[in-house]
Write a structure and sequence with these properties.
The protein is α+β, with helices and mostly antiparallel strands and 470 residues long. 63% of the residues lie in helices and 10% in strands. It has a domain at 37-69 and 138-291 and 351-459: Outer membrane efflux proteins (OEP), CATH 1.20.1600. The two termini are 56 Å apart. Mean pLDDT is 87; it is low at 1-30.
Length: 470
């Protein structure tokens, strides 16, 4: 019995463990593995709904190409009919019923009857229709559908680039906020030490009480700066968690080489015309041209090759006599036909011309947008280069700033202890050191952020991620 109890208890424990793991998977309470920046980017691409939306739109556009290709196939229609109806027929014309056919046609001779007696009528048949040639209209339709698929594919790449850039930027933002928290924490510790030292001097009546008030104020300022830095961390974690589809508390980031200066960029610059935004706009331009080509192929005669086989049955004879109750339930008169129908909407020329003019202006607008995209990308690339150059210069100068701030604090502290300086000088030196520590850590991240901006403008983040995600 003891062994049976231990087995049951173990099974119960495993069941509770499985239930807990399931709940964690659903609610996102379980802490996930630490993420590097490239892992965060790829997870955002896999989980953020905007990417799935663009992906499904691409699938729909690809299906539209298959639909356009079905225009080359023949059309085969089958029909069968059984009806019980009167057999009265008259001479006369009935105008075409263009909106809703209300009057049903009737075949056969005019018998001169006006009776409510009814007979059975049946019909079965097959009609095969096919356009052997269409002057390129179907091909133009396939090209139009394919241009829509290419546009959807280009827009998917744009969405991926935007999501990847947002995830990488959020990652760098969190690291920057964390570095600010580290520096602010050190600033709070220094302010506490100074406050305790000044309080001791004031209690010993070696310094005036105003120094104690000033030291407490400096401590409060340092604590406020720390709270604001922690707030920035929380906001950044929330932004990245939104892209990754996880809880902000579950995020664990690995900085990797991002706290050091990146290596010099290698490789030739990528032309603006290969950027996903440029490719998407070029696809939009091609789609406008494809619509114009469809309209150009629309004003031609339509040749339709048709073949039909059908049979009919009726319960009334040409002389007006009717059979039994079941007479006409089976089709007994058959026919077949083979021919070609030519239709030509002559007056559609004016409407087609107006539509072509609209598409011509749409094409010009898309061409102008394409030029604008290229020009904007060129300007953004120059701005990113300037940002990178400036960030490198700042990063080269911050170590000297940090060293000077440390020496200044040491000198101010020594002078204050010797009674040769005021507390204001020490407090100012502490604030300068805290700011120098923040500037030094953020300067290296600023270089990475500039490298990220340059890679986004070039439309390819993979080289950046290969270096940053090591």
């Amino acid at each position: 019995m003891g062994k049976h109890f231990r087995i049951s208890a173990s099974l119960h424990a495993f069941a509770r463990l499985g239930f807990f793991i399931s709940c964690c998977a659903v609610t996102g309470l379980c802490e996930q593995n630490p993420l590097t920046i490239d892992q965060a980017v790829h997870q955002a691409l896999a989980r953020y709904p905007a990417v799935r939306v663009s992906s499904e739109q691409l699938s729909a556009a690809a299906a539209a190409v298959d639909l356009a290709r079905t225009g080359y196939l023949p059309r085969i229609d089958f029909m069968g009919e059984v009806a019980r109806a009167t057999h009265n027929n008259i001479f006369g014309l009935v105008l075409p019923q263009t909106t809703l056919p209300v009057l049903s046609g009737i075949s056969g001779p005019v018998l001169g009857t006006n009776s409510l007696d009814s007979v059975w009528g049946t019909a079965v048949g097959t009609l095969v229709s096919w356009e052997p040639f269409d002057f390129g209209l179907r091909k133009a339709g396939v090209v139009l559908a394919r241009s829509g698929s290419e546009l959807a594919g280009a827009q998917l790449e744009v969405t991926k680039l935007q999501v990847a850039a947002a995830a990488a930027d959020a990652f760098l933002t969190i690291l920057a906020a964390q570095q600010t928290v580290t520096a602010a924490t050190a600033g709070v510790d220094r302010a506490k030490s100074l406050d305790e030292f000044v309080e001791a001097l004031v209690r010993s009546e070696l310094r005036p009480g105003a120094d104690a008030s000033r030291s407490r104020a400096e401590l409060s300022l340092a604590q406020i700066q720390l709270v604001r830095a922690q707030q920035a961390v929380d906001v950044g974690r929330a932004a990245l968690a939104q892209l990754l589809g996880v809880s902000p508390d579950a995020l664990v980031l690995v900085s990797g080489p991002l706290l050091d200066l990146p290596p010099e960029p290698a490789g030739a610059e990528v032309p603006e015309s290969t950027h996903p935004l440029a490719l998407a706009q070029k696809a939009a331009l091609q789609q406008a041209r494809a619509r114009e080509e469809v309209l150009a192929r629309s004003y031609f005669p339509r040749f339709t090759l048709q073949g039909t086989v059908y049979a009919r049955g009726t319960g009334i004879q040409p002389d007006g006599t009717t059979g039994g109750f079941a007479s006409g339930l089976g089709p007994n008169i058959q026919n077949w036909a083979l021919g070609m129908t030519v239709t030509f909407p002559a007056l559609d020329l004016f409407g087609i011309r107006a539509k072509k003019k609209i598409e011509m202006f749409n094409e010009r607008a898309e061409a102008a947008r394409y030029d604008k995209v290229l020009q904007d990308l060129d300007g953004q690339r120059e701005q990113a280069k300037a940002m990178l150059t400036g960030a490198l210069r700042v990063a080269q100068n911050t170590p000297a700033q940090l060293e000077a701030a440390r020496a200044s604090l040491q000198q101010a502290s020594a002078r204050y202890k010797a009674g040769l300086a005021t507390l204001v000088e020490v407090a100012e030196a502490q604030r300068l050191l805290t700011q120098a520590e923040i500037d030094d850590s953020l300067a290296r991240l600023g270089v990475w952020r500039a490298r990220l901006a340059l890679s986004v403008v070039q439309g390819d983040m993979e080289p950046f991620l290969r270096i940053a995600g090591k």
